[in-house]
Amino acid sequence: MGEHVYKVIELVGSSKTGIEDAVANALTKASATIRNMRWFEVVETRGYVENGTTAYWQVTIKLGFTVDE
Amino acid sequence: MGEHVYKVIELVGSSKTGIEDAVANALTKASATIRNMRWFEVVETRGYVENGTTAYWQVTIKLGFTVDE
Amino acid sequence: MGEHVYKVIELVGSSKTGIEDAVANALTKASATIRNMRWFEVVETRGYVENGTTAYWQVTIKLGFTVDE
Amino acid sequence: MGEHVYKVIELVGSSKTGIEDAVANALTKASATIRNMRWFEVVETRGYVENGTTAYWQVTIKLGFTVDE
Amino acid sequence: MGEHVYKVIELVGSSKTGIEDAVANALTKASATIRNMRWFEVVETRGYVENGTTAYWQVTIKLGFTVDE
Amino acid sequence: MGEHVYKVIELVGSSKTGIEDAVANALTKASATIRNMRWFEVVETRGYVENGTTAYWQVTIKLGFTVDE
Amino acid sequence: MGEHVYKVIELVGSSKTGIEDAVANALTKASATIRNMRWFEVVETRGYVENGTTAYWQVTIKLGFTVDE
Amino acid sequence: MGEHVYKVIELVGSSKTGIEDAVANALTKASATIRNMRWFEVVETRGYVENGTTAYWQVTIKLGFTVDE
Amino acid sequence: MGEHVYKVIELVGSSKTGIEDAVANALTKASATIRNMRWFEVVETRGYVENGTTAYWQVTIKLGFTVDE
Amino acid sequence: MGEHVYKVIELVGSSKTGIEDAVANALTKASATIRNMRWFEVVETRGYVENGTTAYWQVTIKLGFTVDE
Amino acid sequence: MGEHVYKVIELVGSSKTGIEDAVANALTKASATIRNMRWFEVVETRGYVENGTTAYWQVTIKLGFTVDE
Amino acid sequence: MGEHVYKVIELVGSSKTGIEDAVANALTKASATIRNMRWFEVVETRGYVENGTTAYWQVTIKLGFTVDE
Asked: Which of A28, B68, D52, I26 is spaced 20 to 30 Å from J39 by Cα?
């Protein structure tokens, strides 16, 4: 982590499986347009409930990536 | 999410396995008395430690459900 | 939880797999020098990203243990 | 506010119009089953968006009422 | 704290004396209808002032109890 | 907003109508003694409930004004 | 809210009228370039004061929209 | 709590005895210049330690009083 | 408070009596190994409930002490 | 820090140079009317931007001073 | 600050020197693509440590700019 | 930042000069006993005031270092 400038964006990934998979889905989508992703922080974990069980996990991350390379 | 009124309650689910399972246990218990559960938010994740490992995950959720249907 | 005094320390555990495993790695390391660990609270969940996916989960916990036994 | 005990519950009111009306809808629903409502605090203000405008305001309140009269 | 599900409710206890007594009054009232109370957390401490002194301490607690026994 | 020093005070405005009017009432009262008011931030929105509806909105603001002109 | 990825951006809308109108102005501007807006959350409510009254309400929202459709 | 405007100030009271007494000392001092004090909220509780015990409790309160009577 | 370096640790003191006594118990335990304790801040106040009353108060403090003398 | 009562006020200092100088400007202004200033805490650090660089740093402090000497 | 709509983005600037320079580096980078930058708020200040001293200061800002001119 | 376990401690550094120097003093002191320091986060910035100016800056950091090498 040298003398760079980073941008931090907020994404919500969804998954029927769990928290880690919801984050993975967000990263997969983001990697289509963003190079040089470096770190994320989980800032909110929610779920959408249908018929008494978790239909979708919805995990909000802050994602940091280099903007000066 | 139309023009409804929702109630939000706080539950702590426990599990020997992990976070997702602790939430599932809380939802299973809640579904015995609450119909129309819609969403939850994880507000605290703790663990009870025995013999140097996690004996129980304890996950606190806020659970929202419709009160006007 | 009787009339004891507890100390709370902050640790960051890492894992290639996920949140529960990162916490387990922190507890394993801590148990080498700390007896009587009682509970933890997850206070931050981050990830280090390489090549568009999570290379390491990094989970910060507050870990409580008895200091008066 | 004398030597009473109060209970505080969390409700989400919805409205097509705005924040005050969403709170009013929550209070109307609550007053069907709760007597002695005393105060509320707005803890979250959200909106559901359809076709580029706010379809529903969704306002979360904490509602306090006397439980010992 | 085994593999249970807990419910957490929010109460405000009042007292002319002080913080501990305000919490005691809330617990006494709650114990009339709730069995298996396990823990509380103080989340707000306020006072109502009359004639330049504290007429009532008003202490808000989150109270956890077992729902599955 | 040049090289000034500002003071920030906290006020609670009340209104039977709604949030904007409660803030307006606080500003009207403050303007009797404070010149050079510049900005405010809403920090708390509460209501006092009578007979199942909002009798008074009570909105707490932080109010900034220049002290060096 | 199915298995999508959402992006969340932060906007400040202004209005001479009030909070709801400031949000509406932000949504109108955003809808010129963003399709599939889904929800917002109000995260800050401020006002710019001139001549002792609110010249502009300035409401900061987090705005979520689908990025994978 | 009618259609008034309140001012909220922040005070730190000290006491060798405990939290309630530190608040009382702050109220006594404030009552010398402020009429119509109505409520307070405890926002910070600290202590100054000498020779291994609490020499002074230092309790920060927000104190609200009517400004329009 | 001169040009020193301080360390801040987190402790939980317990007491059957109340908040001040729980803090005193934590300080007594800490003074066995730490010299030069200077201040503390209360960061969490909880209680363990048995038979409908508070069996133990559990007060978490951050405790600061000089490390460079 | 003996058995005193302190008042805490909020000020915003500005500077073209940086954070420390903005605080110094606030203290200089405050010292014209307040004796016995004791401590401050930085609660917000903002900047006003013109032509792509920081025109003014704006640092908000809480300033504590003795009111009973 | 008239009746505009602003966008707020999050950037991390780095510097070997200090906080103000890290912010300046973020603004310089941002000004290459963003016109009409108006204000920033410092939301996190971190440092990367090598050989016992700060190798890089890393300062996270929220940066606001006009989107409707 | 590979698959390590880190410990995070809290330190307060002091300086007559400013924020960066206060952090440097804390790191210098810490490096006498801690190897492998990796990062810090500034969590509180305070000052001690004498004669109307800042006598000492007091900056609290969380300091992370590797415990498993």
From this structure: I26
Predicted structure pTM score = 0.96
φ and ψ at residue H35, rounded to 5 degrees: -95, 165
How far is the alpha carbon of I64 from chain L, nearest alpha carbon, in Å? 9
What the block records as the tokens of L65 is 């270092």
Chains L and C share 3 or more Cβ pairs within 8 Å? yes
How far apart CA F35 and CA H67 sit, in angstroms, is 17
Cβ distance of D8 and E13 shorter than 8 Å = no
By Cβ distance, the residue of F3, F7, F9 closest to J14 is F3
Place of tokens 């507000």: B43
Residue numbers in G near K2 (CB within 8 A):
14, 56
Closest CA to A37 of L38, C55, K31: C55
Q: What size, in residues, is chain I?
A: 69
Beta-strand relationship, K53-66 and J53-66: unpaired
**CATH 3.20.20.150 matches F6-66:** no
Residue L66: strand, helix, or coil: strand
- In angstroms, the CA L22 to CA K46 distance is 14
Predicted complex ipTM? 0.96
Q: Which residues lie below 8 Å from residue A53, measured CB to CB, with a gap of 6+?
A: B24, B27, B28, B31
The single residue listed with the structure tokens 């920081």 is J54
Using alpha carbons only, what angle is made at residue A22 by residues A18 and A26, rounded to the nearest 5 degrees? 175
DSSP assignment, residue L51? T
Q: Residue F24 in 3-state DSSP?
A: helix
Which stretches within chain F are classed as H helix?
A: 19-30
**Residues G30-65: pLDDT tens digits?**
999 999 999 999 999 999 999 999 999 999 999 999
